[in-house]
Amino acid sequence: MNSFERVLQWLQNIWNTEILKLGETSLTFRSFVIFIVSIILLFYLTAKLKKLLALKILPRYKIDTGVSQSIATIVRYTLLILGLYIILQTSGIDLSALGVLVGALGVGIGFGLQNITNNFISGIIILFERPIKVGDRVELDEIAGTVSIISARATTVITNDNISVIVPNSDFINQRVINWS
Q1: Domain membership of residue 154 as a residue range
Q2: Do residues 83 and 120 share a domain?
């Protein structure tokens, strides 16, 4: 066996080395690399699709900027959830075994992540009900400015002094907001 064949054999051994065993599923270096690359591609492609929908496709139908941003964001989150589910299933991870983890995570969210969850749910409500949209002129407490970005957790408002203020979405749901638009 020459040195080239030994190097190829060594690389093949590393490629098929078991890193971790989850129940009946063994995680090899190869499957780990494919898993990570798939997740990176999923996030990259859904971000590109969101941008394409919001800036190119939906404006052709004379849809308001805020509505097109909302639709694009909802499509991205839906594709992310679906994509993550497919990636986990095809990588051999048994999702039924994650039931206990999801239950424990639910308890953790209930206690420790209550504020973040509140902002996320408020962001979904804002995207569906649209009390504010991108481009709206709003006033909240002592902040007055134009809504520039509505994301899942927070909304960015550009003030008259050209200062970006990041406002938690729950503030737009729980407090009195004046929408001058």
Answers
A1: 113-181
A2: no
